[in-house]
Design a protein that fits this description.
Layout lengths: L4 E2 L4 E4 L4 H9 L2 E6 L12 H10 L3 E4 L9 H14 L4 E5 L4 H13 L4 H10 L8 H10 L2
Parallel strand pairs: 2-5, 3-4, 3-5
Antiparallel strand pairs: 1-2
Helix pairs in contact: 1-2, 3-4, 4-5, 4-6
């Protein structure tokens, strides 16, 4: 059963998805799936290649930007920004990891680096059930670089 959580009208986060969730995502207007979970993180988790094949079979785009527990890099933030930009106004983007938290953090960092207001980002994340306070200082720094 899918647990897609709305961050914005365009971007949603989710805990681990299955191949069965892909058809539901397509039916709900998603055009891209971003996998923020490294393969082999947990026994029994679906492989990224299997999710990618299911996404592609549904005619959607797939991006893999794995985030380990070691943290986030500028390259990952840039990759997320690029992925979100490439989806444009074509439809919604679904980002997932084990719980949705890393996907939400990466989305928040990407939006702050684009100059979005950290308060707006934080409120959107909280509305979806995610707390971005662990990266709030970084959000402030990234947003201030765009001022």
């Amino acid at each position: 059963m899918s647990d897609f959580r709305k961050l914005t009208d365009k971007v949603w986060a989710s805990p681990q998805i299955s191949e069965e969730d892909i058809a539901a995502a397509r039916a709900q207007g998603f055009v891209m799936v971003i996998n923020n979970r490294p393969d082999g993180e947990e026994t029994g988790q679906p492989a990224g290649d299997a999710i990618a094949a299911a996404v592609n079979a549904q005619g959607m785009d797939y991006r893999a930007i794995p985030i380990t527990h070691s943290g986030f890099s500028q390259a990952q933030v840039a990759a997320m920004t690029d992925a979100l930009d490439s989806a444009g106004d074509n439809g919604k983007v679904l980002a997932y990891c084990r719980s949705g938290t890393r996907s939400t953090f990466l989305w928040a960092l990407a939006r702050a680096s684009a100059g979005d207001d950290p308060n707006t980002i934080t409120a959107a994340a909280l509305g979806a059930g995610y707390d971005v306070s662990p990266v709030r200082e970084t959000l402030e720094m990234l947003a201030s670089e765009r001022d």
